[in-house]
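Below: protein 1.
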Amino acid sequence: MSENSTPERVVLLDEQHQPAGTALKSEVHTEATPLHLAFSCHVLNPDGQVLVTRRALSKRTWPGVWSNSFCGHPGPDESFEDAIARRARQELGLKIRDLAVILPQFSYRATDASGIVENEFCPVYVCFADDEPEPAASEVAEYAWADPARLASAVADAPFAFSPWLAEQLREPKLREALD
């Protein structure tokens, strides 16, 4: 549910990544998930560490795996900036700053062990936060601040312990540069 207690909707996309309707978030992630709009965000602290989160065990897809700081879906007529600030607050209790898009055309499709598919056009952002997260238990089981190079090495060595989108993102030189 969104902050105003109405069911959250995601923006469905056509093959050219143009809006093609909406669907309830609670119903869109299935074995045949349609392409939809999302975002992925990596949060850095003043020490240059990147925040990684372990997905709550109650999550429908990839429960318990480590992932980027947070992800989400912009609602219909919601800007990426507003959606990212909203999810940072909801998921991590964070106020973010200096938001920048790093991979504006990132897209991926992956299937969870349960058969649920993620199919997202998902621009990737980096931002900064000055405070410690206060994660929502329904979203995050635990978190850690990591050295970006050590994180990339850990993902390369044990990709099964991380979300597939994080592994794909960290293979992109532009993101690795932004995190260093």
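Below: protein 2.
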Amino acid sequence: MKKIYVHVKNKKYPILIGFNIFKNKKIFSFFNKKKKILLITNNVIKDLWLKHILNFFYSFDLKINIFVLKDGEKNKIIETSNDIITYLLKKKYGRDSLLVAFGGGVIGDIVGFTASIYQRGIPFIQIPTTLLAQVDASVGGKTGVNHILGKNMIGTFWQPECVLININFLSTLSRREYLSGMSEVIKYAIAFNKPFFFYILKNIKKIIQLNSKVILKCILKSCNIKSKIVAHDERELGNRALLNLGHTYGHAIESYTKYKKFLHGESVSIGIIMAARTAISLKKLNLNDFNLIIKIFKKIGLPVKFYHNINVDKFIKYMYRDKKNILGNIRLVLPIAIGKSILIDKISTKIIKNSIKLTCK
């Protein structure tokens, strides 16, 4: 079992990563017997892994209640958080309670958000079950729910007590869901680490086959990169914004398609291509690196194209609602080389629209 620490201003917490980690008795120390524990999951994870996780709790004589949500991004709304709060109040959960997020990024975001606002904040633990959640969503304390007008528009920064990453959970992911998570891994490499980029490119076949050694390294490297960035910029006032490479375009793709056509990672892969095209137009990225970015997504099996018949004016309205924007200007994270990215604003709308159109051909 590998351990990484996240250091933020008023807190230090571990990320534990490995195979069969719930057989390790050290995990028990994060669950205090004096706390009332509510584990929140969804109907899909319930059928696949709930018995496994309950065996761990029962082996330590821990009493735990279960709250099951419906699966899917469409349920990541404030009404769902309110349903959880209603349950907590009816069952008399106090400030000494503990919430456990057991699922993918949607579960982690909703549970973290609910923990941050219930009785002005109670602790929670992340147990991510998807690759995307393990390498990105569970780390760093971003929580939130979606609004009809934009993704993650309602949220808080609320750090977990720990993140417990059991790689075995990936075995039941569909191929599509698993590869979607690789989009965030590739994002780290493009934005921050050139050697990691070429490691992924060299080992794509092993990654697709879920080779244990390679996937462990990918998760460790991703969590290491993110933990260091979060430590220096917990509330995204500086370099943490670079973690959003591809996300301004990607979130617009999700909102435009009403979360029905693409998984989050698929939207991000297309979004990174749009961002790379923007960088090309601004003469900040060379064509060789651009082609390498296209190549890595194609080889891993992620989309690099959007719809042919997109309404660009309608699409760009979602981009204007992005949280990084300042004074009404769209701000974008752009790759300027493999392993290096920048945050830039005051990009002409014409260039942004052209980047979208070129990615739709």
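The longest helix spans residues 212-232.
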